[in-house]
Structures are given as C-alpha cells and as structure tokens.
Amino acid sequence: MFQSPVGMRSGPTSVQAAAQAGLPHAEVPGDLRARVERVLADEPIHPDPGVKWSRTTDESDSRFGLGRFLWPHRYRLAVAFLLVAAETVALQLGPVLTQIGVDDGILAGDRSVLVLAAVAYVALLAVAAGAGAIRTAFTGRLGERLMERLRVRTFEHMQRQQMDFYTTERAGVLLTRMTSDIEALSVLFNEGIVNFAVQGLTLVVITVLLFNYDPLLALITLAAAVPPTLASSMWFRRRAAADYRNVRDRIGDLLGNLQESLAGIRVIAAHDRRDANVAEHRRVVNRHRDANLRASRANSLYGPGSEAIGIATQAVLLAVGGAMTASGRITVGELAAYLLFLTAFFAPVQALVQLYNSYQQGGAAIAKLRELFGTEPTVTDRPGAEVLGEVRGEIVLDGVCFSYRDGQRVLHDVSLHVSPGETIALVGETGAGKSTVARLIAR
Question: What secondary structure, in 3-state letters, does the chain show?
Fold first, then answer.
C-alpha cells in the first residue's frame, strides 16, 4: 500500500457494512438514536443566522469596531435614546417643581401651589420610572440579539480557519474570545452605552437649566467644577486604557493555562508534574491578580477625587448663592433648585467613572476580536468554487508526494485507500510522515 517508511494496518469493522449502506454513525444504538431524533424534533425553529463556511479572504474584517457593529441596528438604538430622553427630562424637572413649591407655595403661604407641585413631582417620577422600565426591557432584548449574532460570527470565523491556525493559537485564548471578551461587550452595551447616553443627556439638561436660572452663578459653578474634573478624567483615561488591555491579556493567559492543564492531565500525572503545574498556574494567577490590582488603583483615586471636587463645588455654590439670595438676585427656591441640580450634576459624573471602566474593558475586548476577525484563512477557496455535496467517506491517495517550505520531501509516492467505515492505523518511526498524512487528509 505505501512506498514510504509509513506502514498501515487495516481491517473491516462492525460499522463498515452499515456505513456503506448509507447509515452514518451506525455504531450508535438504535434507542439512543431515536431519543436524539425526538430531541431534535422538539427543538424550536431558529432563524437562519447567515453563517457562511467558505474560506474567502474578503470575509475577514480587521476594521471591526463598536460603530460598525451597532450601525445595522441604528433605528432600534434611536428608539432607545428617545426613551432615554423622556426619562431624563422627567427626572430633571423635579428641582424646577421644588423651586416653585418653595417660592410660590411655602414662602407665599399658598398651600394649593405646594400640593400641586408635589403631585406633579410624583407624576414626573412615575413617567420616568415607566420610561426607564420600557427602555431597560427594550435594550436588554436588543443586547441579547446582538451578542447572539456576535457569538455566531466569532464561531463561524474560527471554523473557517485552517489547521495551522489552531497550531499557533492557544485554545484557552480562543475560548476567551468566545466567552470573556463577548461578555465584556455585552456589559458595555447593556450597562454602558445606553447609560452613557442617560448620564450625558442629564449633564446637558442640567447645564441648560443652570444657565436659565442665572448665567453668572452657572459660570461660577462650572468654573469651579469642570477644570479639575476634566484634568482628572484625562489622567484616568490614559492610565485605565493600558491597565485594562493588560487585564484582558492576563485573562487569556489564565484560561489558556487552565485549558492546557486540563487537556494534558493524564500526561501530567504520568510524569508526576502536578507540583510544577500548580506552581506555574499560581504564577499565572498572580499576574492576573496584579493586573487587576493595578487597574483598581486608578479607579480608587479617580472616584474619591471626583467626590471631593463635587463637595468643594457645592461649598462654593452655597457661599456665592447665599450672598446672591441675601442681595435679592435669586430667590431661596432658586438656590434650593441650584443645589439639587448641582447634586444631580455630579451624580452622572460618578456614574460615568464606572461606565468608563466598562468602556475600557469593552474597548480591550473589541481590540482582541478585531485582531481575530482580521486573521485570514491561509488556504482560501477559489472564486466560484463548488460546494462539496454529500460524501461517501472514501479516502484515496494515489502517488502523493509532499514537502514543506524548505523543499525537503516528507512523503514519497504514497498511495492509500480507505473504504467508508473502515478503521486503519498508520505505523512508522518518528518523522516517517504519519502526522503529515493525517493533516493532508483533514485539509
């Protein structure tokens, strides 16, 4: 059979006749096959995810990014942002009603105005709660659909790769792309993007209302709050971007080490390498811990720093606003509304700190997925290649020669015939070409 150092042992198996008769997996017991068919029959009919298994270079995408990912769903996102606007406006009208209740109700001695302002405040809270509930449900469903398509797309891209891709890439790192990285994107969408719109719109609405009450007081307030907040945010952005990229790398190392240890547990036990593997895993875990600690240090400085800026700004506003109230420039109710607006102004800033953490993790995940999607298959289909139909399972090699890049032949005039359902064994010394034959057949 072989004119090479590779030998072959073959013989018919119990499944060969059934396989030739067109019964795949004939070794599976009939009762088990029947149960599997019943499970498949009960499965819901899912829409076609649009998976393509051909290997063409134009299906790789090194430009993958958040904007390109979300663009096909821009109309649904527009609906979500309309709900965000309704929720934000309803919440930020509360201090206006407080000012009316204080000036025209309490100080004027008109209880009816106070009651009306309180009822309107409750109604606005109900509107905000309703819009928030609808928005959360809507974006939650949209987010799950997006993640479903991204998971299918990632799996599809991995399936199109050739065998050499899986030789160089660690299985644990690829598992990270399918699990941890996509989960980081899910958190970014469900808890980041929409909430970022909520908090950003809140800042805009509050700023407009502050200038509507008193432009001078608004300028003093923003002059005290914006410069230190902007400076600390720019520092945090530079620090966090590098830290979270390092965290994503360490997660990949951790899962890769775990996968390799579990896959080779029998070899590890046979060579009594348990202690060495535990020590290596401890080093990987420690690097993962150190990366997370470094990322958390920046957050621990930025969060309390933003709170301190907010408290200092409130003190400035209280001093300046109190003097303006005493001079009659603004009313007591307007000062109360100003203080409420300022509190609401810094609440989004604090929320944006946490959202920026999600953004950094999601941005690092996008970079990793972009790198994966930019990997092109080393062997591609020709234009117009025919789709392989049903196969019989027969393998024929007829006078095959093969060499790697260095030009040195590994296989010399190899011939082989394997019938459907037949089991064979390739036997030979190291370097005879057994693995090469197996890889050529798989390719």
Answer: CCCCCCEEEEECCCCHHHHHCCCCCCCCCHHHHHHHHHHHHHCCCCCCCCCCCCCCHHHCCCCCCHHHHHHHHHHHHHHHHHHHHHHHHHHHCHHHHHHHHHHHHHCCCCHHHHHHHHHHHHHHHHHHHHHHHHHHHHHHHHHHHHHHHHHHHHHHHHHHCCHHHHHHCCHHHHHHHHHHHHHHHHHHHHHHHHHHHHHHHHHHHHHHHHHHHCHHHHHHHHHHHHHHHHHHHHHHHHHHHHHHHHHHHHHHHHHHHHHHHHHCHHHHHHCCCHHHHHHHHHHHHHHHHHHHHHHHHHHHHHHHHHHHHHHHHHHHHHHHHHHHHHHCCCCHHHHHHHHHHHHHHHHHHHHHHHHHHHHHHHHHHHHHHHHHHCCCCCCCCCCCCCCCCCCCCCEEEEEEEEECCCCCEEEEEEEEEECCCCEEEEECCCCCCHHHHHHHHHC
Average pLDDT over residues 40-57: 44
* Residues 423 and 289 reside in one and the same domain: no
Over residues 384-416, the pLDDT tens digits come to 777 777 777 788 989 888 887 767 788 888 888
Q: Which pTM value belongs to this model?
A: 0.56
* Same-domain pairing of 368 and 398: no
> The CATH number of the domain where 152 resides is what?
1.20.1560.10
Task: Supply the range of the domain harboring residue 363.
Answer: 65-373
241 & 308 share domain: yes
